[in-house]
Amino acid sequence: MLRRGDTGPEVTELQLRLRQLNLYGDRIDGTYTRPVEDAVRAYQLARGILTDPLGEYGPATRKTLESETRKP
């Protein structure tokens, strides 16, 4: 589970995957900021993902996002 304040390569990959879907246009810096949280929330709402907390990158969100995007 990734959430605001987390940092590292997993966050960088998340940012790059969200960018592939034109959901995230901010810096690719490996920091889970408010814009990342907002992009994850928008993605979850658009895909009807209700099992992960809104704005947090949990298992259901990860599985769906990884199936729709290519590995950066």
From TrEMBL:
Residues 7-65 form the Peptidoglycan binding-like domain. The keyword Cytoplasm does not apply. GO terms for molecular function: hydrolase activity. Keywords: Hydrolase. SUPFAM superfamilies: PGBD-like (SSF47090). This is Peptidoglycan hydrolase-like protein with peptidoglycan-binding domain. It comes from Streptomyces echinatus.
